Amino acid sequence: MKAPAEAVRRRTSPGGTGSGERALDPYQQLRTEIISGRFHPNERLVEADVSHMLGAGRNAIRAALVRLDQEGLVILEPHRGARVRLVSDKEALEIEEVRVVLEQMIVRHAADRVGAADLRDLRRSIDRMRERLEQGNPLGYSELNAEFHQRIWSIADHHTASRLLANLKSQSIRFQYRTILRPGRTERSLQEHERIVEALASRNADAAEAAMRQHLSHVVETLRWSIEAQRHQPIWLPR
Question: Model-level pTM?
Answer without folding.
Answer: 0.73
